[in-house]
Amino acid sequence: MYVCLCHGVSDKKIRQLAIDEGITDIKGIKKCTALGTQCGKCIKPTKEILAETEYLQIKQAS
């Protein structure tokens, strides 16, 4: 699903950056994509995706 319609950033891309690159915050995602640079509606869902991804990684590790 597209999280940032303005720049075509998907939830899959956000998860990939979180897992492969260890990015855990919006600032890091913004450095790699154009997310949040236009309308900003994608910031909240991106934070939720990052938190969910981090939670799942912790859960899998234990």
Automatic annotation (TrEMBL):
Transmembrane annotation, as ranges: none
CC cofactor: [2Fe-2S] cluster
Keywords annotated in UniProt: 2Fe-2S, Electron transport, Iron, Iron-sulfur, Metal-binding, Transport
Domain BFD-like [2Fe-2S]-binding, first and last residues per copy: 2-52
Organism superkingdom: Bacteria
The UniProt record lists the keyword Transcription regulation: no
Entry-linked Pfam families: Fer2_BFD
Similarity annotation: Belongs to the Bfd family.
Protein name, as recorded: Bacterioferritin-associated ferredoxin
